[in-house]
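[job 4471] stage=fold_predict status=RUNNING
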Amino acid sequence: MLICLNLPPSEILKPDNVYAAGIIPGPKEPTTLQLNYLLIPLIKELKEQWQGYHFSPTSTVPSGSFICVAILTAIADVVAMRKLP
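[job 4471] inference complete, writing structure tokens
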């Protein structure tokens, strides 16, 4: 699961703000090779987003906006995730 830590704590885990990057079905855990195939599309997308995006100018931001995306890793179960800041 991916969550945006820039949101207020009351908003972080609302369903509209959580992205399920992937769900791995059980009952066995995947092999390293299988896991790599699941993660490759996500890694490609994140590498693209790290380069940044320029958003078009608006009336409130005449020069437009430039953002980069970064990932903070936290491995936890859902109960533990709810305790993240």
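[job 4471] summary: The chain has a mean pLDDT of 82.
[job 4471] exit 0
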